[in-house]
Design brief:
Length: 243
């Protein structure tokens, strides 16, 4: 595969221009990690759309230093809103496949092709990353976080009717058609549940794909795994009570 993505992509599986794969990166105060992960994505030939969701650090400066589609929210709207902004931009600019990719360094650019392949091969409309399909991946998940995520799986199944092995993994891929059928209105962590409800409403074909989530020292310092897991379960319970 040539760096510019113009040749047949043997990693993805079929003949496809990698530039037609748009990777959406929502970013909020990630100046320490965003530059490096954008460079990694670009090195694979993907088109990258970064939505700076009102960062108050130097994230915007790091984003503008690399050749990506850079969009800036004037103030923080939430990850769901950032993803919706990025998807609309990607669809308007010819995306064939859209990938959601976190800005904190927990996702690996090398695994984007694994998520995209089932869509290109016609096996699925949406591919959902899971950290619980392989023992080597599940062993990396901190114990308390794993417990909270397992609780989220049960509550999410009750709320959406979709029973998955990892319901709140932000690493996912969608065909352009699937992305156009989904509308995210939840701006906070509840968007992860909403997107599954939207997938079921639109009767999209789904497939889970094993991915490795890297729980880095940086993420641990920020306290993201525990806080996110608690927020996920709280949001799911509220949606169940007040739907």
């Amino acid at each position: 595969m040539k760096p510019n993505g113009s040749a047949c992509d043997t990693v993805i599986g079929l003949c496809m221009d990698r530039a037609a794969v748009f990777v959406i990166v929502p970013c909020y105060n990630e100046e320490r990690t965003v530059g490096g992960l954008l460079e990694a994505l670009l090195s694979h030939g993907y088109t990258v759309v970064v939505v700076d969701d009102g960062s108050q650090d130097h994230s915007w400066r790091a984003i503008c230093a690399v050749p990506v589609h850079a969009i800036r929210h004037p103030f923080n709207l939430g990850q769901g809103a950032a993803l919706q902004t990025g998807m609309l931009h990607a669809l308007r600019n010819g995306a064939e496949v859209i990938v959601h990719f976190d800005a904190d360094g927990q996702h690996a650019a090398e695994q984007v092709g694994d998520l995209v392949r089932p869509i290109v091969d016609g096996e699925a409309d949406v591919v959902l990353g899971s950290r619980f399909l392989r023992k080597t991946d599940s062993e990396l998940v901190p114990f308390v976080t794993a417990l909270m995520l397992k609780a989220g799986i049960v509550i999410n199944g009750l709320v959406t009717g979709m029973w998955l092995s990892d319901t709140h993994n932000g690493f996912r891929a969608l065909s352009a058609w699937a992305a156009s059928a989904i509308r995210l209105r939840e701006s906070g962590f509840a968007h992860a549940t909403e997107i599954l409800a939207e997938i079921r409403r639109a009767r999209l074909r789904t497939k889970e794909c094993p991915v490795t989530i890297r729980y880095t020292d940086y993420a641990r310092i920020k306290g993201q795994p525990m806080r996110n897991a608690v927020n996920i379960v709280v949001d799911l319970c509220l949606r169940k009570l007040f739907r």
